[in-house]
Amino acid sequence: MKTIAIANQKGGVGKTTTSVNLAAALAEKGHSILLADLDSQGNATSVMGLGEITGHSLYHALIGEKRAQDLVLPTRLENLFAIPADLDLAGSEVEVARMESHLTQLRSAFDDLRRSGAFEYAILDCPPSLGILMTNALVAADEILIPIQCEYYALEGLSTLMRVISGIREAANPGLGISGMVLTMLDTRTNLNNAVVKDVREHFQEVVYETVIPRSVRFGEAPSFGRTIHEHDPRGTGSLAYQALADEFLQRQAKNIHFVSPDGVVANS
Ligand code: ATP
Ligand code: MG
Fold first, then answer.
1. Given CB 3.0 to 4.6 Å as the disulfide criterion, which of 17, 103, 129, 227 pairs with 231?
2. Beta-sheet strand order (sheet of 177-184)
3. How far is the CA of 250 from the centre of ligand 1 (A)?
4. pLDDT by residue (tens digit) across 42-73?
5. CA atoms within 13 A on the CB side of 152
6. Ligand 1 pocket member 74 (CB < 6 A)
7. Do 110 and 122 touch, CB atoms closer than 8 A?
8. The dihedral of CA 44, 47, 178, 69: what is its sign?
9. What is the Cα Rg of the chain in Å?
């Protein structure tokens, strides 16, 4: 099982939208996927129709009470399983911080799942903060995938995120790779958005996925119906973009392409 953390401490950049729709696209292509919701807001959980369930969040794994394996639930989509979030997760920040092994709780909880071979990929939807939940996700992960919103302040906070990644490598997870950066919410009608894409590509070169996720009102609608973008608007630009991202993600995986540093220095396989 390869574990991919979808993370950026910046809020509202498309982490949850990417987690859900990339996971669903990969599942539809026949890969067995676990989508784990690490955000107590539970947005990914409610899209998967698991919002009413309590006692099944990673909180129980983080405090060492349950194994992650025992928290996995099936979803309505074939090949897609989930570990839902609930409000308990918010409390785990404080409880886990007190533990001596506070960085490695999630990784330990995932041990059985990793060994079981039940899933090809685990996708972790991270909350928008640099707290315990996100650091645990980065310690448990093989790779981080970073959504970046096409906006004026797109690059803000990325140097902090890179420092955090270096710190995690030193402290607990030397092999943590960068799967890539995904540009989200592109409005091609605005020059500013196009300039941001150019800027980010110049800066981060091949670390940035070719696929860019367009801005579409459909993304705002889909969660209110409890649907993925593929269920809500299967032939729309948004669904096609996440299918293309899934293909590109799988190509990188097949070639074992990932990055150590984001500034164009490629260090893979
Ligand atoms: P948070 O930091 O709060 O967890 P997030 O990074 O997970 O946020 P999302 O929840 O995925 O971000 O997206 C933020 C908002 O932007 C949501 O309302 C979502 O529906 C909308 N959104 C995401 N992607 C797109 C897109 N490509 N086009 C239009 N709207 C989008
Ligand atoms: Mg989110």
1. 227
2. 73-74, 80-83, 33-37, 121-125, 2-6, 143-149, 177-184
3. 23
4. 999 999 999 999 999 999 999 999 999 999 99
5. 0
6. no
7. yes
8. positive
9. 17
Q: Count Cβ atoms below 10 Å from residue 159 Cβ, excluding itself.
A: 10
CB atoms within 10 A of CB 218: 16
Q: Is the CB of 49 under 6 A from ligand 1?
A: no
Residue nearest to atom 8 of ligand 1 (CA): 12
Q: Which amino acid is at 187?
A: D
Predicted model pTM: 0.97
pLDDT band (50, 70, 90) for residue 10: very high
Which atom belonging to ligand 1 lies closest to the Cα atom of 11?
A: 2
Tokens of 27: 């599942």
Per-residue confidence (pLDDT) for residue 5, from 0 to 100: 98
What tens digit of pLDDT does each residue of 214-250 get?
999 999 999 999 999 999 999 999 999 999 999 999 9
Question: What is the bridge-based pairing of β-strands 80-83 and 33-37?
Answer: parallel
